[in-house]
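#structure-requests
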Amino acid sequence: MLNLARKDLLLLAGFIIAVAAGPVIMTPLGLDYPDILQKFAIFGIFAIGFNILFGLTGYLSFGHAAFLGVGSYTAVWSFKLFSMNPLPAIIFSVILAGLFSALIGFVSLRRSGIYFSILTLAFAQMSYNLAYSVLTPITNGETGLQLEQADPRWLDTAVFGLDYGAALPSSSLFGVSMTGYPGFYFCAALLVICFYISIRIFRSPFGMVLKAVSSNQNRLNYTGINTRPYTLTAFIISGMYAGLAGGLLAVTDPLAGAERMQWTASGEVVLMTILGGTGTLLGPVLGAGIIKGAEAKLSQYNDSILTGFYDFLPETLQHAMVSISGLFVGEGWHLTLGAAFMLVVIFLPGGVMEGVRRIGRLFSKRKRGSGDAASQPAE
């Protein structure tokens, strides 16, 4: 079924159940809002795609935000020119991001290691600066590209005869608005599809070659295998994932800005992948959920909330604790993320998934130990 081994089929089934039950699972954490859940799904796709490149080949790209931005701009232009249906928007986003990644990958993959990383970072910053200034007629510069009442939307008006009137339209899939929980489940369905494709890539001969590239690329070259087509293909697939994520960002909020191409967005997906577990299937999704959940939760704390939290302390100590805690929440929540990332790198180099595996091995040892003790004859 689905050409998956039993273990992978169970993994996919569990993943589908967890994603479908996302609103219920996140309710105790206060993260069951549709816009937050949409971010979980979208950045999960972004991280899965990045993991196909970094986790399999070992090539660390600092320029994937460029493809995220291309996907967003393409989706908004699709809304402006053709239709508010998200399907053409995400198709165009994936195609254009794939073409753009093929161009950047063709140049960047001539180098490896830190030189490859610097090249991708340079391309991303060039893309950001072009979107911010030179390509203003296409990107609308610092204001960002957004919908207007005068947009033609040829398919909607000429083919389907839709009239949006004076109000700005929102994206809708055959009449179903892509806001709220319908928007989340649309993103969630694409997340499941992307996760399935990732499993197939990891288990395929192509994926095995990519793992061999990460292990020892020189040895592969000595055996006569040309690794360039494999790494370029992985780079393009990864870029298409990023383009899809960028398109979905525009689907849920029809706006595209140059800030999505900044190096910080590229660094964020690197953190997601490493935090969750590089080279694992579930790790990038978990990393994306942890970072976006921490952003949503920690950034909402302010001095008034902290004051109420430390209300049981004497006034002087209360003010001191509010001042110290304020450094790690609100606008300073990145400090908490940095501390958590440092601890994970030191104690769990394999990310959260390594911690899960350690716990699993611990329980299996205890189970084996209790079984051996039970099998010993009584004296």
